[in-house]
Design goal:
single chain, mainly beta, three-stranded antiparallel beta sheet, 1 helix, 10 strands, globular
């Protein structure tokens, strides 16, 4: 069970409240953080529970080169990036969370 307590996303585990802070929570967060659409065309959106992303997400190409793609925080729980300048291909999105770094494979098609 997931819910918000104050401004932090918490989950109930065997009846106890727990904040997302440990490595064991990374798998749980992976299911709560959504990246859409897949495959992406012109815009990439990230939706997440409040206060679990600690840094602005970053995008890398298949060779590991950091791309100059700006992720704009639309509001708490949503990032958006214009990816029109990216060529069609496979990319990797790094998302820093309170529990560690999530890496998602992103496919861009134009």
């Amino acid at each position: 069970l997931y819910y918000y307590f104050g401004s932090q996303c918490v989950h109930e585990y065997f009846g106890k409240r727990k904040t997302f802070t440990g490595v064991e929570d990374l798998k749980l967060l992976k299911n709560l953080i959504t990246v859409s659409p897949q495959p992406a065309n012109d815009v990439l959106k990230i939706n997440y529970p409040n206060n679990v992303i600690t840094k602005t997400p970053v995008l890398f190409d298949i060779n590991g080169k950091l791309l100059n793609i700006v992720f704009v925080k639309e509001n708490e729980g949503n990032y958006r990036a214009d990816i029109n300048e990216c060529a069609s291909g496979i990319y990797f999105l790094n998302i820093e969370t309170t529990a560690g770094t999530l890496r998602r494979k992103i496919i861009i098609t134009h």
